[in-house]
């Protein structure tokens, strides 16, 4: 493709995306294809001869769109959001066009230095501690996912705990312990397995009524383990759990970690970016105790996947665990110790120029625009929770400090509540106007309504509430009729 052809077709693609965003509300939110449908509409073999761009573009509509669940749809209330935005897409386009592989400073100095600067900006915007700034002992880096960030945090913690011995001798699976709660994201357990510790190393600490980790239980668990000769390596505290956005009390947990020399990793994958709004920072009071911190701009900060913001207070622990310098990567800047090489901060060697999209997003919206984005969703979720609180057909089952509301429908006597709740969920999702997911709270299924798509307005939240209440009434009547038969 020549630059001129690229220009022409590039404009067509941008038009296609703009049109998609304009008509996104007309699609059913959840893809309605059956397993195998998408593959069945594709040829069995790759084309022998190149095809015209028109044919490729037409297949986006014919093959791809029917198999897409529309995460940017204003009726998308499932999981956590996966925001994207115009500036994010355009930043990614530039990154793709430059085709830079930024593994070392020398392989493209702008890729490293822009990332350092944007991560320092973002640490400021989120009110994170000074220790995370590149100007001190720490620093920030863009990772591919919070799952990846949880893993590198654990590797850094193992390195520090062993005084560097893990590099030569590996981990001590029979002595190392890692502390989570029942609400911690499963990626932490996965990290433990990948790190070679095995899940016997995981201690699951009890949670309080609000589903946050109980610090007294953590302290007792650590004391017991230390007395038995275990070596506590890392405590993973979550700000905004996946299930209900519960918050582990960082200040109390931080003190306990310090006492035992355990690394405090804060997983704020979804909720962390809410700290752009100063009034929401109270949720992470005590974050200054953290040794590492992860939050995903690709969930709720208008930046397309992948853009995990990861900071460490002591970058030496991270690079100690991950740095490796084969001869072919040696260069004067690295040898002089004058630069940061981000390949030493992550698992893969190669890395994309992801800071570009973050830079575009932060500059386009400004701090003010990012705050407005977060605040609008929080306000909408609080309204929804208010309607549900005032309605005898639903219980709000967990604190909702941000933009996720967990609802448990109430059903008439004699109705199997779990079955009815899951039936309501399927009914709503089959309808195509909205998409919700579920979780389990105190062993009962509940509906999660996560307000977070950039296009969602009050009108869409009113609509999801209307669908929930209408669906509830219809099902309750239906179940009652069945019982009467
Ligand atoms: N941690 C928490 C608290 C999460 O909620 C999630 C995903 O929702 C993750 C980690 C994993 O995030 P990622 O998809 O960036 O790996």
UniProtKB/TrEMBL annotation:
State one molecular function term (GO). pyridoxal phosphate binding
| Gene3D superfamilies reported for this sequence | Aspartate Aminotransferase, domain 1, dopa decarboxylase, N-terminal domain, Type I PLP-dependent aspartate aminotransferase-like (Major domain)
What GO biological process terms are annotated to this protein in UniProt?
A: amino acid metabolic process; carboxylic acid metabolic process
SUPFAM superfamilies reported for this sequence: PLP-dependent transferases
Question: Which cofactors is this protein said to need?
Answer: pyridoxal 5'-phosphate
* Signal peptide residue numbers: none
Please give the residue positions where the record annotates the modification N6-(pyridoxal phosphate)lysine.
Answer: 299
Classification via InterPro entries: Aromatic_deC, PyrdxlP-dep_de-COase, PyrdxlP-dep_Trfase, PyrdxlP-dep_Trfase_major, PyrdxlP-dep_Trfase_small
Can the keyword Ribosomal protein be found in this entry's annotation?
Answer: no
Q: What keyword terms does UniProt attach to this protein?
A: Decarboxylase, Lyase, Pyridoxal phosphate
Name a single GO cellular component: cytoplasm
Family designation: Belongs to the group II decarboxylase family.
PANTHER family listed in its UniProt record:
GROUP II PYRIDOXAL-5-PHOSPHATE DECARBOXYLASE, MIP05841P
Name of this protein: Aromatic-L-amino-acid decarboxylase
Q: Which organism is the protein's source?
A: Blastococcus saxobsidens
């Amino acid at each position: 493709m020549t630059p001129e052809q690229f220009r022409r077709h590039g404009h067509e693609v941008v038009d296609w995306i703009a049109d998609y965003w304009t008509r996104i509300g007309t699609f059913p939110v959840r893809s309605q294809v059956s397993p195998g449908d998408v593959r069945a509409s594709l040829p069995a073999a790759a084309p022998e001869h190149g095809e015209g761009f028109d044919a490729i573009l037409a297949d986006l509509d014919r093959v791809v769109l029917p198999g897409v669940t529309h995460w940017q749809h204003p009726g998308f209330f499932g999981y956590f959001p996966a925001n994207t935005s115009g500036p994010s897409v355009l930043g990614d386009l530039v990154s793709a066009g430059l085709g830079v592989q930024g593994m070392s400073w020398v392989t493209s100095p702008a890729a490293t230095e822009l990332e350092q600067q944007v991560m320092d900006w973002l640490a400021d915007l989120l009110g994170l501690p000074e220790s995370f700034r590149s100007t001190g002992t720490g620093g920030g880096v863009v990772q591919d996912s919070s799952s990846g960030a949880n893993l590198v945090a654990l590797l850094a913690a193992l390195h520090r705990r062993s005084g560097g011995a893990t590099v030569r001798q590996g981990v001590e699976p029979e002595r190392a312990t890692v502390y989570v709660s029942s609400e911690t994201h499963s990626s932490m357990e996965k990290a433990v397995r990948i790190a070679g510790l095995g899940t016997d190393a995981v201690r699951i600490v009890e949670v309080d009524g609000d589903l946050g980790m109980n610090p007294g239980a953590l302290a007792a668990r650590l004391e017991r383990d230390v007395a038995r000769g275990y070596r506590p390596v890392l405590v993973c505290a979550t700000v905004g759990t996946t299930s209900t956005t519960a918050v582990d009390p960082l200040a109390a947990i931080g003190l306990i970690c310090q006492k035992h020399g355990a690394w405090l990793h804060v997983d704020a994958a979804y909720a962390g970016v809410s700290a752009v709004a100063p009034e929401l920072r109270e949720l992470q009071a005590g974050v200054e105790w953290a040794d590492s911190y992860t939050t995903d701009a690709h969930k709720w900060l208008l930046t397309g996947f992948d853009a995990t913001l990861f900071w460490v207070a002591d970058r030496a622990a991270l690079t100690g665990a991950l740095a490796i310098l084969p001869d072919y990567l040696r260069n004067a800047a690295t040898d002089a110790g004058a630069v940061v090489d981000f390949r030493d901060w992550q698992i893969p060697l190669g890395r994309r120029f992801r800071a570009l999209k973050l830079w575009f997003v932060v500059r386009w919206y400004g701090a003010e625009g990012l705050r407005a984005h977060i605040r609008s969703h929080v306000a909408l979720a609080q309204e929804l929770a208010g309607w549900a609180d005032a309605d005898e057909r639903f219980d709000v089952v967990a604190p909702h400090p941000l933009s996720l509301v967990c609802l448990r429908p109430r059903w008439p006597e004699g109705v199997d509540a779990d079955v009815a709740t899951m039936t309501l969920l399927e009914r709503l999702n089959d309808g195509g106007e909205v998409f919700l997911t579920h979780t389990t709270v105190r062993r009962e299924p509940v509906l999660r309504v996560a307000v977070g798509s950039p296009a969602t307005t009050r009108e869409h939240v009113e609509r999801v509430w209307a669908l929930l209440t209408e669906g509830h009434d219809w099902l309750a009547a239906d179940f009652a009729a069945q019982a009467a038969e």
